[in-house]
Amino acid sequence: MKVTVDEDKCCGAGQCVLLAPEVFDQREEDGIVLLLEAEPGEGQHALVREAAAVCPAGAIEVAG
Amino acid sequence: MTGTLPAFPGVRAERCPFDPPPAIQALQKEGPLTRVRLWDGSTPWLVTTHAEQRALLGHPQVSADVTRPGYPLSAPRLNGSLSFILMDDPEHARQRRMVQAAFTVRRVEGMRPAVQRIVDRLIDDLLAGPKPVDLVEAFALPVPSLVICELLGVPYADHDFFQDHSRILIRRVTPPEERAAAGGRLLDYLDRLVGDKLEHPGDDLLSKVAERVRAGELTREQAAQMGVLLLVAGHETTANMIALGTLALLQHPDQLAVLCGSDDPKVVAGAVEELLRYLNITHGGRRRVAKADIEIAGQVIRAGEGIILANDVGNRDPEVFPHPDELDLGRDARRHVAFGFGVHQCLGQPLARLELQVVYGTLYRRIPTLALAAGLEQIPFKHDGQVYGVYELPVTW
After folding, report:
1. Nearest chain B residue (CA) to A29
2. Which of B27, B162, B228, B241 is the most exposed place for a label (fewest CB within 10 A)?
3. What residue spans of B170-218 are helical by DSSP H?
4. Which of A9, A19, A31 has the CB atom closest to B103's CB atom?
5. How many other C-beta atoms are found inside a 10 Å radius of the C-beta of residue A25?
6. pLDDT digit string (tens) for B241-293?
7. How far is CA B365 from CA B120, B156, B268, B372, in A?
8. What's the ipTM?
9. What are the extents of the domains in chain A?
10. How distant is the Cα of B328 from the closest Cα of chain A, in angstroms?
11. How far is CA B53 from its chain centroid?
12. Do B343 and A9 lie within an 8 Å CB cutoff?
């Protein structure tokens, strides 16, 4: 699985961090998404897909 | 033709105070998009299905700019400056990002012990005081008001002033001149506070907003407007979720038992999502206007046409939530649209979640005999509010 995030689209709602805090975080200064793990392990896949699905700004892309 | 369109917002059924108006909910069966009639005679689209609501709220040609012709107003629009929730990007994103850091999941989670202390103390006071008591006044309003005051740097001693004015501001039936006056007084109040923060900056969010004024990135009025938005949104919504949520749980004892019987944070967090879905207190819908023709669900929304996304009805979409009219704290309700969707999705949602998790996870465990001290038919519901809830909730134990 390959994850990419679009910082320009991100609106900082934090849904991804709630779901998969090992994969996503937020920048201290403005709350914009920080990708911690671009190729998360299998145990994270379901949560990452859910994070992409609930992201209100469509800022998370998942391939594979 | 126009005369036969259903009026929006509709009227709730007397015996079902937690359900959307039946005439509006029924529109979902007619298809994702139908027309409704508003107070001013305009006939915008009403979107009632979850998938189409998400698609449109995330659509680049759908605007939140209240000044665009065709925007479906909920009441006469007042002149004056606007908060960023009524603007489009890039200005919306520029202003939102100035305050977003205060609401990150990590930052908000750090507030959990402080919020727990506030909730514990208020429950101590409740138990030591007379009963019955109005839970709105004694608990539901103070919790979020104390929290947002601390975060923003607003003196809690002023709570009567800002709670009263917020209430006037968001009542649908408030005459325009009265609404303007209340809004003006709140704006003046926040402007004075921004002025104080410019002179004596503290470690609070309003001081950070004031810094942007000093840096020339915001006007004084924009800063005050932002303060009004954060203060009003910060206490009204959560207060209503606390009181209405408590009432809903008291009416569903089997569900209340789930919360009374568990201290698992996951159970409590799931219950919060389900109550957000089920109650969806922002019952005026999300309001937008099309910037270009948009094809969706076999219909064409023309440029300049108003769109209302009825998120309360979207949260009752059986395609996404089986048996949607049942309150079921055990279900996975995370995909609800109670906080909206798209780039305008609620900025304060991590804080709202935290406050509701602490409240729902503490109140009923500490007062397991909590009971309504009046008949359901005597409870004054906020049918006339931009945000749904109850004006009073007499309880005993």
Report:
1. B101
2. B228
3. 176-199, 205-214
4. A31
5. 19
6. 999 999 999 999 999 999 998 889 999 999 999 999 999 999 999 999 999 99
7. 11, 27, 12, 16
8. 0.95
9. 2-63
10. 20
11. 17
12. yes
- CA–CA gap between residue B106 and residue A27 (Å, rounded): 10
Across residues B93-116, what is the average pLDDT? 96
- Write out the two tokens for B166: 């917020």
Residue identified by tokens 């108003």 is B306
Here the contacts of B367-375 (C-beta below 8 Å, separation 24 or greater) are B367/B123, B367/B126, B367/B127, B367/B397, B368/B260, B369/B397, B370/B246, B370/B250, B370/B395, B370/B396, B370/B397, B371/B250, B371/B395, B371/B396, B371/B397, B372/B247, B372/B250, B372/B396, B373/B131, B373/B132, B374/B132
For residue A31, pLDDT beyond 90: yes
- Burial track B309-344 (b if 16+ CB lie within 10 A, e otherwise): bbbbbbbbbeebbeebeebbbebebbbbbbbbbbbb
Domain boundaries, chain B: 2-396
Between the alpha carbon of residue B213 and those of residues B32, B95, B216, the distances in Å are: 44, 12, 5
Q: Which two tokens stand for residue B295?
A: 């094809």
Identity of the amino acid at A23? V
Rounded-to-integer distance, Cα B80 and Cα B33, Å? 33
Whether residue A58 and residue B346 make contact (CB cut-off 8 A), yes or no, is no
Pick the CATH number of A2-63 from 1.10.1660.10, 3.50.30.10, 3.30.420.40, 3.30.70.20: 3.30.70.20
pLDDT-derived band at B1, boundaries 50, 70, 90: very low
Range B2-396 classified under CATH 1.10.630.10: yes
Rounded to whole angstroms, what are the CA distances from A40 to A33, A49, A55, B158? 16, 11, 18, 49
At CA B337, angle to CA B336 and CA B343, rounded to 5?
A: 135
Three-state SS at B134: strand
Residue B222 exposure: Cα atoms within 13 Å on the Cβ side: 21
**Closest by alpha carbon to B44, among B62, B26, B59?**
B62
DSSP letter at B382? -
CA atoms within 13 A on the CB side of B234: 26
Residues of A in contact with B106 (CB under 8 A): 17, 25-26
Helix (H, G, I), strand (E, B) or coil at B95: helix
Structure tokens at B45: 């689209």
